[in-house]
Amino acid sequence: MLWHKTEVEAEVATGRFAHALLVTPSTGQDRAAVAAHDHGLVVVLADGAGGTGRGATAAQAEVDTVLAAPFEDATRLLTGLDDPKRLGLGETTAIIATLRGDHVVGASVGDSGAWLVRAHEVVDLTEQQVHKPLLGAGALPVAFASPLAPGDTLLVASDGLWKYAHPADIARIARDAALDEAAAALVELVRYPSSKLPDDVSVVLVRRS
Ligand SMILES: [Mn+2]
């Protein structure tokens, strides 16, 4: 079962962006959201960890917190959220990315990842992130920033994509003209012949027009 938001356009004061979002299964522990605000487009993605639904609770709490305070500095927001009580005793990875016209800024922790896919290069925005501990267990969020040019595509995804697909295939698909088709194709990259997925997969694609 898919939770699939088809491609939408958002015009914020700092530029025009198209985005697509896909989280599967909808009953898993991955969460993702995109919100357009006056000063930018905010992407948040969380891959929860922990038994008895605690991972899902933690991931949802992270998304809800970011959507409630989209302008807060991402590193400060993650540091404030790194509290078992605020995350329902679960743990989660975290990526927050804010696209503001000609640049993207954010912070992350864990093994979810964010790439900036350009015509002839890929910038791994989360290359320096610390995988463990996760949010809720004493995380060390690391900030990132990069220029953003027209046509650049931001890909934020959980490890269900990064661990099971070839980087060249991911980059090729992320450059597809239709973002909603690209999001679906990225999930198909990791699907087993049995139709099962190796892990929950969440994918957000944002392209600056
Ligand atoms: Mn995962």
Report on this structure.
There is one protein chain. By secondary structure, the protein is an alpha+beta fold. It has one domain: PPM-type phosphatase domain (Phosphatase 2c, domain 1). The chain is built from 5 helices and 12 strands. A 6-stranded antiparallel sheet has the order 1-2-12-11-8-9. The two termini are 30 Å apart. The mean pLDDT is 93. Bound molecules: manganese (II) ion.
Q: How is this structure best summarized?
A:
This protein is an alpha+beta fold. 22% of the residues lie in helices and 39% in strands. It has a single domain (3-208), classed as Phosphatase 2c, domain 1 (4-Layer Sandwich), CATH 3.60.40.10.
The CATH C-level name is Alpha Beta
Tally the helices: 5
Model regions low in confidence, pLDDT < 50 over at least 5 residues: none
Q: Say how many strands there are.
A: 12
Distance between the termini: 30 Å
Give a quick account of the main beta sheet: strands, pairing sense, barrel closure.
6 strands, antiparallel
- Tell me the number of structural domains: 1
The CATH superfamily is known as PPM-type phosphatase domain
- Ligands, ions, cofactors: manganese (II) ion
Category from helices, strands and their pairing: alpha+beta
Question: What does the overall shape look like?
Answer: globular
Mean pLDDT: 93
In CATH terms, what is the architecture?
4-Layer Sandwich
In spatial order, strands of the major sheet run 1-2-12-11-8-9
Topology:
Elements: E1 3-12, E2 15-24, E3 30-37, E4 40-49, H1 54-68, H2 74-81, E5 91-92, E6 94-100, E7 103-109, E8 113-117, E9 122-124, E10 142-147, E11 153-157, H3 159-162, H4 167-174, H5 179-190, E12 201-208
Antiparallel strand pairs: 1-2, 2-12, 3-4, 4-5, 4-6, 6-7, 7-10, 8-9, 8-11, 11-12
Helix pairs in contact: 4-5
